[in-house]
Write a structure and sequence with these properties.
Blueprint lengths: L3 H12 L6 H18 L4 E4 L4 H17 L9 E6 L6 H14 L1 E6 L23 H4 L13 H15 L5 E3 L15 E3 L8 E3 L7 H10 L51 H10 L12 H11 L6 H7 L40
Parallel strand pairs: 1-2, 1-4, 2-3, 4-6
Antiparallel strand pairs: 5-6
Helix pairs in contact: 1-2, 1-3, 2-3, 3-7, 8-9, 8-10
Protein name: FAD synthase
Pathway: Cofactor biosynthesis; FAD biosynthesis; FAD from FMN: step 1/1
Enzyme class: transferase
């Protein structure tokens, strides 16, 4: 278990230093302190789902509490809420449980009813997936909506459950940044909308960049979910989250300093190219195994996240085309999330379709 006093020393020293990240850290700590003053030190919680942003926020929150709490009070748990998405990554939930122990979280685990899920991209659970890399080795069903999936309603119900369970909580720290969906419309502190449970939403890191987040985590050696070391840059449900294609390592490239290289734009294959190649290369595929254009596109979109470029290479080869990514010679490799240099590509691995 971490010591809040040590975290407080660490983050406030950084905030008061000449480090390039210092202004961001100081701004975030000031927002947290103002929220604690306005709502009450013991009446502020943190929304924690195991992602990189809220991991940064949790470390800052622990530091802010460590500075103002007495030695005996530092042993008190930190209030937190976890609102799960449909079919979360098991390795992510393992990290959340580790954080509960490390930071002494009093975590309210909220799972809204299936018909009112927080994310609308839902499919039946994939029981074989137990860790991040397994997700790339097992073909998954095409994403679809389930029941009356409606994200906003699911979130509202989750907060109602939390308010009923913890009526003394007035403020919730949230790790939203400007580049997140709807992030451009928020401020450091804003109340929940009419018709929602009354909370003060506190957003200390809204001005942080993607690079700021990773600089903080790595510079202070803050533990984070290991999915980020496997090429994931933004985490959600297993059915709408893929490794970021911008971090794909080109196996044919070499570098003198052994740093993996990013794939060139010419190596990316569009569905149209895949379809055209099939139509012009069917002589290499036995008639009994040939696919229709519709099947090609469908299998292409469900396979390329596991082996970008693999569909075309299989089509161009002399071997029979195989439908599933697990049949390829080796799984693709990705650089860790902190190697992404283009902030605007942070969510390139999220969506209904496989990113190309």
């Amino acid at each position: 278990m971490i010591r809040m006093e040590q975290v407080a020393q660490q983050v406030y020293d950084l905030a008061n230093s000449n480090d390039p990240l210092a202004p961001r850290v100081k701004e975030a700590l000031d927002v947290i302190d103002e929220g604690l003053d306005a709502c009450g030190t013991d009446k502020v919680s943190i929304s924690f789902n195991g992602g990189k942003d809220c991991t940064v926020l949790l470390h800052l929150f622990a530091g802010a509490l460590g500075k103002r709490r007495s030695t005996t009070q530092c042993s008190s748990p930190i209030p937190a809420i976890y609102i799960a998405v449909p079919s979360p990554f098991p390795v992510l939930e393992e990290f959340i449980q580790d954080a509960v122990k490390d930071y002494n979280l009093d975590l309210f685990n909220c799972r809204p009813p299936q018909e009112d899920t927080v994310e609308t991209i839902v499919t039946p659970a994939a029981e074989k997936i137990t860790r991040g890399s397994d997700y790339m080795n097992h073909p998954l069903p095409r994403p679809r909506g389930v029941g009356k999936a409606k994200g906003g309603e699911g979130m509202r119900q989750a907060l109602e459950m939390y308010k009923a369970q913890c009526p003394h909580i007035n403020g919730i720290l949230i790790g939203t940044r400007r580049t997140d969906p709807h992030g451009d419309k928020i401020s450091f502190r804003c109340p929940t909308d009419n018709g929602w449970p009354e909370f003060d939403r506190i957003n200390p890191i809204i001005n942080w960049s993607y690079a700021d987040v990773w600089t903080f985590l790595r510079q202070l050696n803050v533990p984070y979910c290991k999915l980020y070391d496997e090429g994931y840059t933004s985490l959600g449900s297993t059915y709408n989250t893929f490794p970021n294609p911008a971090l794909l390592i080109n196996p044919s490239s070499t570098s003198s300093d052994n740093e993996p290289s990013l794939p060139s734009a010419s190596s990316v294959i569009s569905p149209t190219t895949a379809l055209t190649t099939v139509m012009s290369s069917t002589h290499a595929i036995p008639v009994s195994d040939a696919l229709s254009p519709t099947e090609v596109l469908s299998n292409y979109m469900s396979a390329t996240h596991a082996n970008p470029g693999g569909v075309l290479s299989a089509i161009n080869g002399t071997a029979t085309y195989n439908h599933y990514p697990s049949a390829f010679s080796s799984p693709p490799q990705y650089q860790p999330a902190y190697m992404l240099k283009e902030d605007h590509l942070e969510r390139a691995g999220r969506g209904l379709s496989i990113p190309v």
